[in-house]
Structure formats: structure tokens, C-alpha cells
Specification:
alpha/beta; 12 strands; Rossmann fold
């Protein structure tokens, strides 16, 4: 009798743990953190919004993505417009690099009716390949541009040509979201990220550039992802001003061959912001890129889910929250 009672108690404890774990994970899922359920209640799905994704390749045949890609497809390396994934050698074997596919799946999971313009960076093109990709995005129909890759062939600061191309992209009235990088370092420590901060404040950018950092959710706690670059200290808070944080740790999305898998990085946080921005643009189609960026920054959540303040040196403007952005948008338009 005692053994049976002990067994019942153990099973009960295990069941309670599973329920609690599912509840915690549900409360901290990326869609809930960004507050996509609120957008769904308002019939926001990204319809009519076009997003350009600049990356190293895509899987347009993926069952969850094949209806999402625009007929307008670009490859900086040739004129065939082939945007298929690049084959890379990793872990002792050749395999498809599914980075762009994963990024695209994150965007469409938040904004399922958005139209994706894939722009593939061809190999061995140096900085000129980045320039071509940015020019393609500038002349495209895209409202928002996702850049989850490093725009520097040398690994150092932006080249003058890439910098000019980004300014032209902003002047074409595009919201530009760039992954902040995964060195777990303050932005001003490295020449590349410091050059992005400098560019974000350039008057010709017209406030249309956002840098994306990643947040993490483990055991019910909301923190900066350990790998994510962060604003840190800077003169007049310059590194914090255009920095926005979103879920980017262990994100499940589409990968090569019709499958799904987890990836982590600020590369995953950037499309979270882009997906939310797409819904915001759908809700307020009259707003230009600068106004959309300001709404995202102003409405960002400044307090963690656990009730702790989110320091600007770690999270910049805060963690993206679509509900607040929609509320700010209504106030903005009524004023």
C-alpha cells in the first residue's frame, strides 16, 4: 500500500512538473514575447507587405515557404536569379547552409501573408557583392529589409561603398534591420559594429536603421542571450539609441529539405523584429520607414517578464512588443 502511494505521489509530482514546464515555455515562446496573439486578434497577418531578405541562400521548395517567395528573386553572382542554398563543408561533411531559410521562416511565422523577396549573396564577391545586394533591395518593392549577415568582407568596419549603399537603401524609404553579431561584446569594442552605430546616426540614414540583439528564455527567466552583442557604454548613449532586442536563442524555424530545426543568434532576433514590423506596417500603411522605426523603439518593453528593469546598456531601447507598438501607433496618428 505504501509503495503504491509513493508511486502515485511521484507520478503526480512529475505530471505537475511537466504542466509547469509547458506553461512556462508557453508564456515565454517568441510569439508570446513579441505579442503576436494580440496582432492576430486584430486580423494582422502581413498581407500587402513586402520584405527583402539578404542572405546566403534559400530553400524556396520548403513546404512552409513555397507560397511566400516573390517571383522577383535576385542573385548577386549571376543573372539566373537562382537563390538556392549554398553547399558548405561543416562537421566533416558537405551540407546545405540553411541560414536564409531559417531566417525567412521566422518572418513568415509572425507574418504569414508577407511576401519575401530573396536576395542571395553570391560567393567570392567581396564587398561588391554586398553593394549589389543592397542596391537590389533599394530598387525592389520591399518595405523592410532583413540583413542577418555581416556586411564586411574584411571583418572590419563597413567599406565606404557598402556604407553608401546602406544610405541609399535608407533613402529609398526602407526599414533596415541588421543583426548586431554574436561576439558577446559591446558594440563600440569592434570596428564593424562601431561603424554600424556611427552609420545609424548619420543624417542621411533618416533614422531608418535598427540593430538587433538577442534575448534568451530559460527556466522562466528573461535575459540577454549570452552570445549576443550589446550596446554597452558609449558617448551620449549612441550605441543604445537604435538597438532593439528580440528572442534569438534556440528558435525553431524552417531548414533545408522541408524540415524544421533550432538555431541561435542575433540572426534569429533580426527577423523577429522584421516580422513584427511587417504587422505594424500593415496596421499603419501610411507611416514611412522612419516613423515605423520610431514606433518600434518607443514601444519597446523596458521591464523584464520577471519585473526587473532592462538596462539600456544590455537591451538598448528594450524588447520588442507589438501590442505597445500598435497602441503607440494609434496615438501617433490621432495627434
Amino acid at each position: 500500500m505504501l509503495e503504491r502511494l509513493s508511486y502515485v505521489v511521484c507520478v503526480g509530482i512529475l505530471f505537475a512538473f511537466i504542466i509547469h514546464k509547458a506553461k512556462v515555455e508557453g508564456e515565454t515562446s517568441p510569439q508570446v514575447v513579441v505579442d503576436i496573439p494580440h496582432a492576430r486578434k486584430h486580423q494582422l497577418d502581413g498581407k500587402g507587405i513586402v520584405v527583402a531578405v539578404i542572405d546566403e541562400g534559400f530553400d524556396p521548395s520548403h513546404g512552409s515557404l513555397k507560397d511566400k517567395f516573390s517571383p522577383y528573386r535576385y542573385n548577386t553572382n549571376n543573372k539566373t536569379r537562382d537563390v538556392s542554398e549554398t553547399i558548405v563543408f561543416e562537421n566533416g561533411a558537405y551540407q546545405f547552409e540553411s541560414h536564409g531559410t531559417h531566417v525567412t521562416g521566422i518572418i513568415t511565422s509572425l507574418a504569414p501573408q508577407v511576401e519575401i523577396i530573396p536576395i542571395k549573396i553570391g560567393g567570392f564577391g567581396g564587398d561588391q557583392a554586398f553593394v549589389k545586394a543592397l542596391q537590389m533591395a533599394a530598387t525592389s518593392l520591399a518595405h523592410i529589409v532583413n540583413i542577418s549577415m555581416r556586411l564586411s568582407h574584411t571583418g572590419r568596419e563597413l567599406s565606404p561603398n557598402v556604407r553608401t549603399a546602406l544610405i541609399q537603401l535608407a533613402q529609398a524609404d526602407k526599414v533596415i534591420v541588421i543583426a548586431a553579431g554574436n561576439e558577446s561584446a559591446p558594440l563600440m569594442k569592434h570596428p564593424y559594429t562601431a561603424s554600424l552605430v556611427d552609420l545609424a546616426h548619420h543624417p542621411s540614414m533618416k533614422g531608418r536603421l535598427l540593430l538587433a540583439g538577442a534575448s534568451s528564455y530559460k527556466q522562466g527567466r528573461e535575459t540577454r542571450a549570452a552570445f549576443s552583442n550589446y550596446p554597452g557604454q558609449s558617448a551620449f548613449g549612441a550605441a543604445q539609441a537604435y538597438f532593439l532586442t528580440a528572442p534569438g536563442d534556440h528558435i525553431t524555424s524552417t531548414i533545408t529539405g522541408g524540415a524544421f530545426g533550432e538555431k541561435s543568434g542575433t540572426s534569429m532576433a533580426a527577423p523577429m523584429i522584421v516580422g513584427a514590423a511587417s504587422l505594424l506596417k500593415q496596421a499603419f500603411p501610411c507611416l514611412d520607414a522612419q516613423a515605423l522605426v520610431q514606433l518600434l523603439l518607443k514601444s519597446a518593453r523596458k521591464v523584464s517578464l520577471g519585473g526587473q528593469d532592462l538596462p539600456r546598456t544590455e537591451f538598448g531601447a528594450g524588447i520588442i512588443n507589438l501590442r505597445s507598438a500598435l497602441e503607440y501607433g494609434k496615438v501617433f496618428l490621432s495627434s
